[in-house]
């Protein structure tokens, strides 16, 4: 298949495929007239790359999976190098989850502190003043809610 068909079947662009080729992740064969051609194995490699990138893997982290497929394995994650990448990624994710959990706890604590302060301030605040003037109608004076002062 040619590059446009491969791009369409893989759900990507021809530009992306040429980029993968420049990075050594995709190997195109050339016809006599110079067109790139690909086969079903190339599609499987692209699907592996796309799946890993959807999981948050960097492009270079997909290399062991592609090389595993190229060496004839039925799955890109059946080689020791691929398994090592999985382990490294899981360790990175565990660290990030721990950091996010810590940030979440701090935000929750700040929210609780701010809510308690707001409740305490509301309990201590005097009711807004409402004075009427004999100069005009009652709606001539508006009370500013933030200070209780007239506008």
Fold and architecture overview:
By secondary structure, the chain is mostly helical. The protein has one domain: Multidrug-efflux Transporter Regulator, Chain: A, Domain 2 (Orthogonal Bundle). The chain is built from five helices and two strands, in the order ααββααα. A hairpin with a 5-residue loop joins strand 1 and strand 2. Helix 3 runs antiparallel to helix 4. The protein is elongated. The termini are far apart.
In short:
The chain is an all-alpha fold. The protein contains five helices and two strands.
Tell me about the biggest sheet? 2 strands, antiparallel
Q: Please work out how many helical segments DSSP would assign.
A: 5
Integer-rounded radius of gyration: 32 Å
The CATH class assignment is Mainly Alpha
- Order of helices and strands, N to C? HHEEHHH
Backbone structural class: mainly alpha
| Overall number of structural domains | 1
Kindly report the CATH topology: Multidrug-efflux Transporter Regulator, Chain: A, Domain 2
């Amino acid at each position: 298949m040619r590059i446009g068909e491969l791009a369409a079947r893989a759900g990507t662009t021809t530009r992306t495929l040429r980029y993968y080729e420049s990075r050594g992740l995709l190997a195109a064969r050339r016809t006599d007239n110079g067109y790139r051609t690909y086969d079903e194995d190339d599609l499987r490699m692209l699907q592996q790359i796309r799946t890993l990138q959807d999981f948050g893997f960097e492009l270079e982290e997909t290399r062991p999976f592609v090389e595993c497929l190229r060496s004839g394995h039925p799955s890109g994650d059946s080689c020791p190098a691929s398994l090592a990448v999985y382990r490294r990624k899981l360790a990175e994710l565990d660290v990030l989850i721990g950091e996010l959990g810590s940030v979440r706890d701090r935000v929750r604590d700040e929210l609780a502190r701010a809510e308690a302060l707001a409740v305490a301030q509301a309990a201590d605040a005097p009711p807004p003043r409402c004075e009427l003037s004999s100069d005009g109608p009652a709606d001539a004076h508006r009370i500013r809610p933030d200070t209780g002062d007239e506008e």
